[in-house]
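Example 3.2
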Amino acid sequence: MVTTTDIEKKSLETHVELCAERYKFLEEKLENVEQKVTQTETVIREIHDMMQRMADKRTDQIISWGIGIIGFLLASLGWMITTYVIK
């Protein structure tokens, strides 16, 4: 915490000017923190979107593999039926 100086205790104008400088410094620091938070939010949003795209791509890949396997099994079943049942 910032301590008051002896001159601040004696002069209101000095106190007001020093307080104004302190508040200006605090506002600058707050703006820096806000910028960093905004940048962090942007990075997190980009990572989230990238992970979502990866998950969607993986889901599409699993569906494709499942359709391929089911198709192969149906083709095999059809071949077995035509080979062993119909003859």
